Amino acid sequence: MSDHVNNPNRKAPLERYRNIGISAHIDAGKTTLSERILFYTGMIHKIGETHDGSTTTDWMEQERERGITITSAAVTTNWKQVKNEGISKMFEGENFQLNIIDTPGHVDFTAEVERSLRVLDGAIVVFCGVAGVQPQTETVWRQATKYSVPRMCFVNKMDRTGANFNNVLDDIHNKLGANAAAILIPIGAEDQLRGQIDVVNQKAVMYADNDRLGSTYTVEEIPAELKEEAELAYHELVSRVADVDDELAEKVLMEEPFTPKELKEAIRRATITNKFIPVAGGSAFKNKGVQFLLDAVVDYLPSPVETVPAHAESTLDAEETFKITATDDAKPMVLAFKLWADKFVGKLVFIRVYAGVLKKGDTVYNPRTRKTERVGRIIQIQADQHTDIDAVYSGDIAAIVGLRNVTTGDTITSPDNDVCLEPPTFPETVISMAVEPKTKADQEKMSNALGRLSEEDPTFRVKTDEETGQTLISGMGELHLEIIIDRLMREFKVEADIGKPQIAYRETITAPAHGDGKLVKQSGGRGQYGHVVLKLEPQPAGKGFEFVDAIKGGVVPREYIPAVQKGIEDALKAGVLAGYPVVDVKATLYFGSYHEVDSNENAFKIAGSMAFKDGMREGNPVLLEPIMKVEVETPEEYMGDVVGDLSSRRGKIDGMDDQQGGGKAIRAMVPLAEMFGYATRLRSLTKGRATYVMEFDHYEETPRNVAEAVIAEKAK
User: Fold this and answer.
1) CATH of the domain spanning 506-619, picked from 3.40.190.10, 3.50.50.60, 3.90.1150.10, 3.30.230.10
2) Which pTM was predicted?
3) Residue 8 neighbours by CB under 8 Å, 6+ apart
4) Can you tell me the distance from the alpha carbon of 295 to that of 205, in angstroms, rounded to the nearest whole number?
5) What's residue 427's pLDDT?
6) Given 3.40.190.10, 3.30.70.240, 3.20.20.240, 3.50.50.60, which CATH number is that of 624-715?
7) What is the per-residue DSSP string for 44-88?
8) What are the domain boundaries of the chain?
9) What confidence score (pLDDT) does residue 24 get?
């Protein structure tokens, strides 16, 4: 345990904090569970429903319409373990502060989950009692493993037809490769769901039929018909925890008795070190099992003091690294993990405090920009409700108003503390499209709106294509861009046309060539004279442009040589095939001539450009296309279909790896031109179970038939 100091002004000590995320596949019931947690903890007095569009955490219009979570919502609440006869609890009667983040389940919003997991200490992964482990569950699980987040599972929807707790538990073992065991087993299923077996204490928790809100329950002895199941579950739990916890293993081997409290302590140790996953079952919608799930969160998931210390490095010397432990008496180390434009208060910066205290009015420093700013307001977030607070302490999750020069992943600290926390990493964007404002007035509105949206969302990029002059927006998938465009039109009132995406091709030469450029203008007054002879050679891929001056005997005067180079560089911007930029060419200036009176810089600049174009035509020019590095993770049964599809897209398969928990990772190189619409195609090929990432790798010569089509299209 680290030596940490609690500030006397804080409401709850650090040990009584739980920062947890709720994540899962679409429709497993994350938002419904968050809603119930808020109700039972006394935060809200009326339960909202996703299908009515009335939940607390889904508050965006786009979320309420589609019934899905798009942006992760943060909520702060409190929980106290109540005393129940015959049930051992680890922290009875103590008040805990819970910071909960409800994260999206759709693959296009992976980044939201990613950045939330980065700042959380633990997670509840929700499963549907009918569907079990779904594709996106696997993705979320991988993300949690990446950041070493301790987690527990909640098998939800046990009231649904076809729900089966044991099947889901087997799924968790087989598909996710997790060392998991049940701590709360649902009693009954479908419409007969009556309560839960508390496996550790060997008691039954029965919910009253007449209380629709699930607030009334009784603790009873386990019914005789369930006794055997409860004992088997107990032995399974003890053996799985003893396998990874030495203290419990010793007691089991020596056949020493141990109390429920000692067993809980062992489960806690094993969960925090990521060696064990407790599993509970219930129904959030039917209000059964949520209170005991909250008890389990408090019992088994870590406080900020028990997690792995955050990693930080010096901005002055990357070799110098630090471990940031949670304590109030250190310099403030705060990570900005999300930005949000709120229509009432302006730019909200969501933060996680890793160490120290941050007060309203403090001057803070951003090591990335090397600038200082003042903290205007600190807000505790209750989804879209805001409560002003004076200070935040280590372990807190809150939001700041008043910081201008901050982006996702920035560190906020005290002045002159040049230390950065490790930011979350985000995948490269995979799909882009063009947006054109309809009127001049929309032009300005659109650029402001796109600037704000790209600030909020690190996986959304905006750039102007220099070649086509179009504004291109790129994101993680078609739904992601659909939501962005929807927000653009609805929130920011921008009228725009959405076009087809464009690909940035390049041109180069494949054979050495000579180019001759001569400008002679003699028409009254001073003439123009410049004459340049170049040798052009192809360079290795990625080498770029190189200029060599090989003039002997002053045939081109010294002062005009920079002008020749400038002329060639201008000509690089548009090649001779289809006007795309030229790359990887070496140009040697070796001969030319000049005129005593008529030569000047401008004449040599134009002559240089003419000579380059002349040589380019002679050097067997070709079109280059961007090649993407694609990695697809798919269940094994779809592997053949995925490989066949990639091959039909001119893809070259580089290799395949087995994954933990089953499944294959396929690596391939595929031209970008063939990857449009891939997200949708992959989903339909694999029933949505596969995921892919893609990033730019290199340029390669375009096959003749493809090149001819591109050149013809460009010539229209």
Assistant:
1) 3.30.230.10
2) 0.67
3) none
4) 13
5) 64
6) 3.30.70.240
7) -SS---GGGT--SS--SHHHHHHTS--S-EEEEEEEEBPP-TT--
8) 16-300, 310-421, 431-498, 506-619, 624-715
9) 67
